[in-house]
Amino acid sequence: MALVAIDVGGTNVRFARAQEGGLSDIRSMLCADFPSLAAALAAYLDQAGLTATAASIAVAGPVQAPDVDVTNNHWHFSKAGLLAEAGLDQLLVVNDFTAQALAQADPSAHGNLPILDGAGIATAPLLVIGPGTGLGVSALVPAGDGHIPIEGEGGHVGMSPQSADEMALFAALRHEVGHVSAEHFVSGPGLETVYRLQTDAVMAAPQIGAAALAADGPERDAALAMLGILGSVISDAVLTIGCWRGVVIAGGIVAQLRPLLEDSPFASRFRHDGVMGRLLADVPVWLCVDPHAGLRGAAAAFSTPSLQPRIITAG
Is the Cβ–Cβ distance between 84 and 78 less than 8 Å? Predict the structure, then answer.
């Protein structure tokens, strides 16, 4: 079996050949350069000189239905249609943060950077969360010798303001959208929204991040505000799922803003003084800086027992 792992985000799609020894022939492409996932896959296989018989795809968005719409992306595909168009024998589609979670079976591996120390509880679930083009949320629940990944849309839970400034942000955005979610503030577009609502000006997230790192100013204020909200979102998720093992933060936004973490409200908002805040005191937090974590997780998904019923086959 020649398995191709695919990680489909809102902006980029990554491909790799998945083998027992790891990943090879890794390539990244812009989704905007291709009309469909099938076209991008065909281009990858041609460039890499490969023939695939199976694909395991991690997608940013809900994947339960026979048809898949990629969140924050123009691609839409039918699982059965892609299987046939690509000439595959087997196909698995999972949520992108399910894959991110499966890549973190050992959260201290693959170059993950410790952000907050803690012993954690090895037998408890592990939270994996990450702001990028959107806000992905998953968790790994221990099951025998392996794990069962939780597949949800936790980035779209309601945003819970914890300060007067955040209540003002919430109220301002509530005039624009019907449901104010965590992702509205904790993501690349979310950073842009925080900056716009605080300054009445428009700037792209990469420029806000660069300016925030360079000097004090409204860009840094926006970045620190987003990191504070992220701390609350993570603490809520840990308490909801019972992720006492720890937290891995994935996605590119926090990695870019890492120098600001220490002086941000992140730690105090995560380890808050609420009724159950004491349960968060020993929960460790890592930052994932592995650009291929989604691919590793997509490859791992194909052999994960709880996901086997999701594999569709030709014929």
Answer: no
In words, the CATH class of domain 104-287 is: alpha beta
DSSP code for 181? B
Whole-number average pLDDT of the chain: 93
At 178, the pLDDT band (50, 70, 90 cuts) reads very high
- What are the sequence ranges of the domains in the chain? 3-100+293-313, 104-287
Closest CA to 114 of 244, 248, 23, 210: 248
- The DSSP secondary-structure symbol of 226 reads H
213 C-beta neighbours (distance < 10 Å), count: 15
CA distance 158 to 182: 6
Q: Does the structural domain 3-100+293-313 have CATH classification 3.30.420.40?
A: yes
What percentage of the chain has pLDDT greater than the value 90? 82
**Band of pLDDT at residue 251, cut at 50, 70 and 90:** confident
**Is residue 10 within 8 Å of 133, Cβ to Cβ?**
yes
DSSP 8-state class, residue 114? E
